[in-house]
Design a protein that fits this description.
Distance between the termini: 37 Å
CATH architecture of the largest domain: 3-Layer(aba) Sandwich
Largest sheet: 7 strands, mixed
Helix content: 25-40%
Number of strands: 17
Mean pLDDT: 95
Shape: globular
Low-confidence stretches: none
Strand order of the largest sheet: 6-12-11-10-9-7-8
Structural class: alpha/beta
Strand content: 5-15%
Number of domains: 2
Length: 447
């Protein structure tokens, strides 16, 4: 974008159509919308604001998948070694490492596409949650995504520790929806050398809050804790610098902002300081043949020799079709650039926020009747990604979300009170944001 968030300062009538027209005219990324298939209704295309749950399908995905199916058809097993498009299956996981590294701020050997998010988290917790009699606590957010909750609790039990004793949940202050960084840091100070692991989400799934990953990581490591992050809602959404920030490990899925297909292949990051062979680290690790050194993997020896870096945590061979779908989408990210996407994202979300706050139904008050809503996502652009979480009266939230969908606006609901709307910079326009908010306003006027 050739304009900044300052564009909105001093505007008296944000609902004037000239604003979205100008912003769309200035949008240097607008052509990327043509890279995606957008679902349509009988009476026209929908406004898709749900890429934080499932990204749209890139058009090039279908072409690349057809190529792989043709290779399977014509080459069968030889496709592992002899591939007409120079993507041999025996090393296809290497295809995406440079792109993933750029997205999360890592070296290629620190990342790998593999498995699914929660199964990957379990694998890394086996290696990096090492409780002792004194140091056994896990500090994380109170309203973490359920799967993270389940995984952390289960690993406490695997070590014969009562989860109620091990898990330290950081909660928002009374009357607030999001966590203050100072409260997270204070919790770390309070539990100090009893902390074994600190794990938060990069962007919180319910509120859309973008945590200060660098600051929290640095403070947690000063306490001697291992630090991990669930980046399901952060990767492909906000710029990340995992290597520079000293993050120990991270996990993510790829079917949200990375548009890799429903349930697509996930990924992990492990800092090189935890994997370099000259550093003697006792890694208990679930091991399988695809984590074996690729130079000798197919010799089928009985003893495990780990691959370099994060690849040593791979267990099974790479699912070629889902890896190819991810590869297709990552090409688009490389072309657009995550910093450019972030600049447009700030503008899109800022425009949506100002339109919503100009609504007759918006309130700052948390006591909501059936014709009111508020926004619980931080207003500070440095503390949010591409998502705004709108809080409604819990008795009416599902109804309003249903009405939005009937009128062609696809967001999603998160019980008990939230509708999430996520304008995605790769394929959403400022006009779509304008139209979506106008539709919400009309629905609330009518009902």
């Amino acid at each position: 974008m050739s304009v900044t968030i300052d564009y909105f300062k001093g505007i008296e009538d944000i609902k004037d159509e000239k604003h979205y027209k100008l912003l769309d005219d200035l949008d240097s990324l607008s052509n990327f919308k043509n890279e995606f298939h957008t679902p349509a209704k009988d009476d026209g295309q929908i406004i898709y604001l749900c890429g934080n749950s499932l990204g749209l399908m890139p058009k090039r995905t279908q072409n690349l998948l057809i190529e792989e199916l043709d290779v399977w058809k014509s080459h069968a097993v030889q496709g592992h070694f002899d591939h007409p498009h120079n993507r041999p299956w025996k090393s296809c996981d290497e295809l995406v490492k440079p792109s993933l590294g750029r997205l999360v701020g890592a070296k290629p050997d620190e990342v790998v596409a593999m498995g699914q998010l929660t199964s990957n988290l379990h694998k890394l917790l086996i290696s990096f949650y090492k409780p002792t009699e004194k140091r056994y606590k896990i500090v994380y957010e109170d309203n973490a995504f359920p799967s993270d909750n389940y995984a952390l609790q289960s690993h406490a039990r695997l070590h014969n520790i009562n989860p109620d004793d091990a898990l330290v949940r950081v909660k928002p202050r009374a009357g607030e929806s999001t966590l203050r960084t100072q409260d997270i840091l204070q919790t770390l100070d309070e539990h100090d050398d009893s902390i074994a692991l600190v794990m938060f989400s990069g962007v919180q799934f319910y509120t859309g809050q973008f945590f200060d990953i660098g600051h929290i990581t640095s403070h947690a490591k000063s306490k001697g804790a291992v630090v991990g992050w669930d980046l399901a809602h952060a990767v492909g959404n906000v710029p990340l610098k995992l290597h520079e920030w000293g993050v120990d490990f991270a996990v993510w899925c790829s079917y949200k902002y990375l548009n890799s297909s429903p349930g697509g292949i996930a990924g992990i990051f492990i800092h090189e300081l935890l994997t370099q062979t000259h550093i003697q680290v006792d890694h208990k690790r679930m091991e399988g043949w695809w984590g074996h050194d690729p130079e000798t993997r197919f010799e089928m020896g009985p003893h495990f020799t780990p691959s370099t870096g994060a690849s040593a945590w791979m267990v099974s061979n790479t699912p070629v079709l889902t890896l190819t779908a991810l590869y297709a989408s990552l090409q688009i990210f490389d072309e657009a650039g995550i910093d450019n996407l972030r600049a447009k994202s700030i503008m899109l979300t800022g425009y949506m926020e100002r339109l919503l706050k100009s609504s007759n139904h918006y309130t700052d008050n948390d006591q909501l009747d059936h014709k009111q809503f508020t926004i619980i996502t931080p207003s500070n652009v440095d503390e949010r990604g591409a998502q705004l979480s709108l809080k409604f009266n819990k008795d009416y939230m599902l109804f309003y979300n249903e009405q939005l969908q009937l009128n062609g606006v696809i967001g999603d609901d998160r019980k008990p009170e939230v509708i999430r709307l996520a304008p995605i910079p790769l394929y959403n326009s400022f006009k779509e944001v304008y139209d979506a908010v106008s539709i919400l306003e009309r629905i609330m006027d009518e009902f």
